[in-house]
Design goal:
The protein has helices at residues 42-53, 85-96, 136-155, 170-175, 190-193, 195-208, 229-241, 260-266, 273-280, 296-304, 315-319, 323-328, 344-350, 362-371; strands at residues 13-15, 18-20, 24-26, 58-65, 101-107, 119-120, 132-133, 160-165, 213-220, 247-251, 287-289, 310-313. By secondary structure, it is α/β, with parallel strands linked by helices. Helix 3 packs parallel to helix 6 (195-208).
Length: 375
C-alpha cells in the first residue's frame, strides 16, 4: 500500500501495555441507540461494529451508568448489575472483531442526572433541580459503584475502561469551584476538590490490576466561576502520578455548551485542541485531543506540533465511517464532513430520539435505519 500523506496519524502508539495500530480514536458520543432498559441491542452493536470497522485504533463506548440514579438520559447503557455483562461482552467482541481496541466509559451524571432526585458535591441547582449534597458515606458508596462497574467492564472483555470526568458530570462536579462549595476535606482548595476522582481512580486500579484505566478530563467549564485550565492541570498531574492510562481532554458543560460565545467557538476547527496542549504540558501519559478535528490535515498538524498524542473523533467519524480509510489513501476531498452549521443530531437526542445524520449518503442512512428498526 502506498505511504499515507499523513504519516504521524498512522504511526502506531502505546497506551499502557496496549498497542494501538494508529493515532485515531473514537471519542465517546451519546446517540441514544441503547435499549430503553439500558441493555446492548442490535442498534448499539451495529453502530459500534461500523465505527470499529472504520480503521480507528480505539473505540470508546459512551457513558455507561454505574447506577440507575446516575444516568444522564434515557437509552443510556447500564453497567450497574451483573445482568448487563453478557450484552457488554457481545459489544466488546463486536468492536474487537474488527481488529480495534475497545473501551467502555463509566459515568455518574450527578446534578445532570435525568431522574427527579439528583446528587452532587454541593446543592447547586441545575436546570430547575437542586441536587442533594452527598455525605461521606454516600461518596464512599458511589466510589464502590465505580469499582464494581469497572470490574464488569474487565469481565466483559474490553481492553480498557474510561472514567468520565468531563461534561460537568459528577467527578467534575467535585473538582469545579462552581459546583463544589463543601467545607470538609472534599471541598475548598483544589487539592481537596480533586480528592474524590483520585480516590475513584485508586480504588478502581486496586481492583482491576494492570487493566488500563483512562480518564475523560474537563479542562475548562467555559464559565466565569467554573473550573479553568490552571486548576485542571493540578488534577491532570495528580491523575498522571496515580497511574492513569491516558487523558482525553475536553471543554464545556451543559450549562455552557449553548452560550452564544461557546456555540461560535465550537464551530471552529480543532476548538478544544488548545486545552489538550495545555494539559499535555503537565503530564507524561498520552493525551487525546478532540473537538471538530474534521480533516486528516488538521489531525496531522495537531500531532506534528506536539499538542496531543492521539486524535479523538466523535461526530466526525460518525458522519463518515470511512474517514480513516480515506485519510490513509490521501482522499481527504471525498470525506463527508460534519458540518458546523448543522446540529440535527443534538436536537434529536435532546428530544429523546436516536440521532441520524441528515448528510449521510443514502446507503449509510439505510444501514442505520435498519439497525434502529425504522422504516
Amino acid at each position: 500500500m502506498p505511504e499515507s500523506p499523513y504519516p504521524l496519524l498512522f504511526t502506531p502508539a502505546k497506551v499502557n501495555n496496549l498497542k494501538l495500530k494508529n493515532r485515531i480514536t473514537m471519542a465517546p458520543l451519546y446517540l441514544g441507540y441503547a435499549g430503553a432498559d439500558g441493555k446492548v441491542n442490535p442498534a448499539i452493536l451495529g453502530h459500534y461494529r461500523l465505527m470499529a470497522k472504520s480503521g480507528a485504533a480505539l473505540v470508546v463506548v459512551e457513558n455507561a451508568s454505574i447506577t440507575p440514579a446516575g444516568a444522564g438520559a434515557s437509552r443510556v447503557l447500564r453497567c450497574d448489575n451483573e445482568r448487563f455483562v453478557a450484552g457488554l461482552a457481545e459489544l466488546a467482541a463486536a468492536i474487537k472483531g474488527q481488529k480495534c481496541k475497545a473501551a467502555l466509559q463509566l459515568n455518574h451524571a450527578g446534578r445532570f442526572a435525568a431522574g427527579a432526585e439528583t446528587v452532587s458535591a454541593s446543592d447547586v441547582a441545575a436546570f430547575g433541580k437542586t441536587p442533594k449534597a452527598l455525605d461521606k458515606k454516600e461518596i464512599a458508596a458511589i466510589r464502590r459503584q465505580f469499582v464494581a462497574a469497572a470490574v464488569r467492564v474487565q469481565k466483559a472483555g474490553f481492553d480498557l475502561v474510561e472514567l468520565h470526568g468531563g461534561t460537568g458530570y459528577l467527578l467534575a462536579q467535585f473538582v469545579s469551584p462552581r459546583t463544589n462549595q463543601r467545607g470538609d476535606d472534599y471541598g475548598g482548595s483544589i487539592d481537596n476538590r480533586v480528592r474524590f476522582p483520585l480516590e475513584v481512580l485508586a480504588a478502581v486500579k486496586d481492583k482491576v490490576g494492570d487493566f488500563p484505566v483512562g480518564y475523560r478530563l474537563l479542562a475548562d467549564e467555559w464559565l466565569p466561576d467554573g473550573l479553568q485550565p490552571a486548576e485542571a492541570k493540578v488534577l491532570a498531574a495528580a491523575l498522571d502520578q496515580a497511574g492513569v492510562a491516558y487523558l482525553s481532554v475536553m471543554g464545556g458543560t451543559y450549562e455552557s455548551f449553548f452560550l452564544p460565545e461557546v456555540v461560535k467557538k465550537s464551530k471552529r476547527p480543532g476548538y478544544m485542541v488548545s486545552l489538550a496542549k495545555t494539559i499535555k504540558a503537565s503530564v507524561g501519559v498520552p493525551v487525546i485531543a478532540a473537538g471538530r478535528i474534521a480533516t486528516p490535515a488538521k489531525a496531522e498538524t495537531v500531532l506534528a506540533e506536539g499538542k496531543a498524542d492521539l486524535i479523538g473523533l466523535a461526530r466526525v467519524l460518525w458522519a463518515d465511517p470511512q474517514w480513516p480509510a480515506k485519510a490513509r489513501k490521501g482522499k481527504e476531498e471525498t470525506i463527508n464532513p460534519c458540518r458546523p452549521s448543522c446540529n440535527a443530531c443534538m436536537h434529536l437526542v435532546m428530544k429523546g430520539k436516536p440521532a441520524l445524520c441528515p448528510h449521510w449518503d443514502k446507503a449509510t442512512r439505510e444501514v442505520y435505519r435498519q439497525m434502529l428498526g425504522q422504516d
